[in-house]
Amino acid sequence: MNDQLPLRLRAKGITKSFGAVNALADVDFELRAGEVMALLGENGAGKSTIVKVISGLIVPDQGEITLDGDVVHLTSVRASQEAGIAVVQQEFSTVGSMTVAENLVLGQNSAPAWWSPKKLTVNAKGILSRVGLDDLDPNTPVDKLSVAEMQLVEIARVLAKDARIIIFDEPTAALSDAEIARVLDAVKRLASEGRSIIYVTHRLGEVFEIADRVTIFRNGRSQPAENVADLTVDAVVAKMIGRELGHLYPERSRSRGEVLLEARNLKVPGIRGEVNLTVRRGEILGLTGQLGSGTSELMQALAGTNDVLAGEVNLEGTPVDLRSRRRGIVSGVAYCSPDRKRDGIFAGLSIRRNLSSPWLGSVSKAGFVSTRRESSEALRSATDFTIDTTRLNSTVGTLSGGNQQKVALGKWLGIHPRVLLVEEPTRGVDVGARAEIYAKLRALSDAGVGIIVASSDTNEILGLSDTIATYYRGKQTTIKPASEWTEPDLVREVMHRED
Amino acid sequence: MSTTEAMSVGYQNRAATRKSMNILRNWALPLLLVLLFVISALLVPNFSELTTIRAIFLQTALIGICAVGMTALTLSGNLFSLGVTPTVILGAMVYVWVGEASKSMWIAAAVTIVAVLVTGVVQGFIVSLGLNAVIVTLAVGAVIYGVTALVTKGALVEPSEKVDLAGFATFAIFGIPLPVIVFVVFTAVAWLLTQHTLIGRKIFLLGANKSAAEISGISPRATTVWAFILMSFGFGIAAVLASAQIHSVQADQLPALTLDTVAAVLVGGCAVSGGDGSPIKSAIGALFIATVAQIMVLLSVPDGLKQLVLGIVVVALVVILHVLRKAGSR
Questions:
Q1: Do A353 and B211 touch (CB under 8 A)?
Q2: Scanning A292, A312, A318, B206, which has its CA 20 to 30 A from the CA of A388?
Q3: Which helix (H) or strand (E) holds A258?
């Protein structure tokens, strides 16, 4: 029946490259009136880039976009908005201290200069009922709402702009099941009004629940849209991964030594149930799960930056004190966080100062830093992690993502870690640097450092780890050797647990 | 995505612009200062007199020692202290009281510095609990002012004629007054501390990125307290020198010191957010502020206008430095 709906948006031959990286290569994409089109693909497959092209954030190098048959030039966010395209962001753009009603008129195009309180309320009521928030008092400050209600208000704000095409960028990433149902209902209602929906997600279950068609991206290329009704979960997963692991990942070591790190009956806020893990010498343990699955909380607990409610962690047989990061460092636990800009690097300082930050004390005597020892140790770390040694005085903020990540990881070499915890080791990192980082992690493991990698990239986890533990919604679900996993199994495990 | 994009767009050119912007940022203030001296020597009557130069440097010593101390706090990401004046005045009074009692300017100086350090440690602990440094220093400053005003009932605190406490101000080596020498030495020591000691480095790291510093095992609390200690050490020295110089102290003296100190740190190019700056630059900033002020004294500019001009100069320079920093770090 969908085939009868008129075409609303058509993108043809869209190509966009950033330097040597082809983010989009000759991508075709189409969207009919009143349909929900899901966009699927792994991290870096190109789905967020095409969304940015349609919303006017990125201007493509080549290609043509037509809207209801007319060629349009979406060269800015404004142009895209005027063409009737709106984006519901993953991050909220509401002003917390203002009321729902006030937020709904913020940024509205044809808004009058003055709103009476009564008019504000009436206006808000009308919009809110369309997203299923009939019961919400429009005079509630946004701060007081639940995350799902905020997401719905965010959708309502877009509605207030009266858009023909609405893009949802992972709207349910931070929501619970019951809350997700409310958001999905709102999406369905919008489609039934004749609006076209582009729905970007990582959750396969949602695709089968609300989407009419799906476009799958892989390596910057699109595949022709298909009716969801004709697809199975297995078929979708196969289309999403469909590439070889290749030689991006280093060879696994055959020898397995004694137990380095052992977590027993560990209870951590953010994770339901107890966690038991062991890492042996020569073994890389991979933790994987979607955002909010609990891997991050677990890693932080092991690093000493999150509370530990119960249980113990032993390092080569002796208990580790996890009460602070400082103590963790003293006992040889290195921790590389998932968001390097936030807490992994000092963007304004030089590479050398970044590298030396965790082990300054060990090159100091009587409170004075030995610049000579600091330099030689930093040089060794930089050489080891293939960081350009001629640029040790450059500020880290000016480096590429890959080099920043190498600095964020390389700074831990100087503490001579016994265990290295890495979250999202290659987020925003180009392929070349990825291979180097993987090789280095494997080399450290072979040298006797216990390594735990947490990543939402299942391909990376499968390629790099020896043992894989999966997490879903704050619970450890399965743990078994990597050789017993196939990628489709793993993807399904972290995305599609319908229990 | 955005990083790869930045790389692709004329990467080489950007690096070059960045470099020249940074050079300009580092040398803008010294150049301006030289220019100011040359123009003033030509146009302002009596500017090149020895007494004028001496006055400028004595004034710089007071503002500069405070500014160099405050640099530690600003570098640590804790903005500024707004309680410079009351703290220095309290110290100056302690110097007179202890000097009177002990008849020794050395004992008086030691006790003064310790007393000011105590006020700093207390404020450091309060701030390390998570409070804003500006608010805490403003509040504690007000309390200190209240106490000094109450205790002295607003009267002058001055040493009797039997004791001589002015030695620190009158002593000179080769004609250079001791306060100026102390200022230069203090700046050099502060530079050494920030660049080459563990405490100094931790202060830099904390100001550059608090979260990253914590993950690297640096204690934000302890480091913040240390920043306050370093700053108070400067305030203590400044209190001794000021007391020795002005002889009699009153609770509402030195009203412009807090603002001049903040202005010197800002004009020196310290990043308000922390992690970028240098005691030497703040010292040059202090010299600049003191020079502009002295020029206006020579030109007999009325008080209101003096404040206005100084304000405009500070704002203009801070904006320029900010723009240059942005251009240099992009």
A1: no
A2: B206
A3: none
Question: Which of A48, A326, A369 is closest, CB to CB, to B198?
Answer: A369
Question: What phi, psi does A251 have (nearest 5°)?
Answer: -70, 140
d(CA B126, CA B121): 9
* SS3 (DSSP) at A402: helix
**Which one of A326, A357, A360, A404 makes the best mutation probe of the B interface by having the most chain B beta carbons within 10 Å?**
A357
CATH architecture, domain B28-329: Orthogonal Bundle (1.10)
CA A428/CA A367 separation, integer angstroms:
38
Task: State the number of CA atoms in the 13 A half-sphere of A348 facing the CB.
Answer: 22
- Please state, in angstroms and rounded to a whole number, the distance separating the CA atoms of residues B198 and A113: 57
Rounded to an integer, the average pLDDT of A308-321 is: 90
- Find the helix or strand (DSSP H, E) in which A187 lies: helix A177-192
Distance (Å, whole) CA B115 – CA B65 = 17
Q: Is A343 close to B212, i.e. CB distance below 8 A? A: yes
Using DSSP's 3-state secondary structure scheme, residue A199 falls into: strand
Q: Which of B4, B202, B212 sits opposite A19 (nearest CB)?
A: B4
End-to-end CA distance of chain A: give it in Å, rounded. 32
Cα-based distances in Å from B271 to A221, A348, B200, B208, B267: 44, 11, 16, 10, 10
For residue A246, name the pLDDT band (cuts at 50, 70, 90).
low
For CA atoms A344, A349, A350, A354, give the dihedral sign. Answer: negative
Q: How far is B206 from chain A (nearest CA, A)?
A: 9
Contact of B298 with chain A, judged by CB distance below 8 Å, is answered with: no
Whole-number Å distance between alpha carbons of B295 and B288? 11
> What pLDDT digit, counting tens, does each position of B120-136 carry?
999 999 999 999 999 99
Q: Could you tell me the two tokens for B306?
A: 């003096």
Q: Grade residue B6 by pLDDT with cuts at 50, 70 and 90.
A: very low
Query: Which residue ranges make up each domain of chain B?
Result: 28-329
Contact in structure between A460 and A441 (CB atoms under 8 Å): no
Mean per-residue pLDDT of chain A:
86
Spatial contact of A57 and A77, defined as CB atoms under 8 Å apart: yes
Question: Is the minimum CB–CB distance between B189 and chain A shorter than 8 Å?
Answer: no
| Percent of chain B whose predicted confidence (pLDDT) is above 90 | 70
Q: Is the pLDDT of residue A36 over 90?
A: yes
Residues on chain B touching A361 (C-beta within 8 angstroms): 198
DSSP one-letter string for A30-45? EEETT-EEEEE--TTS
ipTM here: 0.87
- Considering the entire predicted model, what is its pTM? 0.78
Q: What does the pLDDT look like over B19-76, one tens digit per residue? A: 777 777 788 888 989 999 999 999 888 888 888 999 999 999 999 999 999 999 999 9
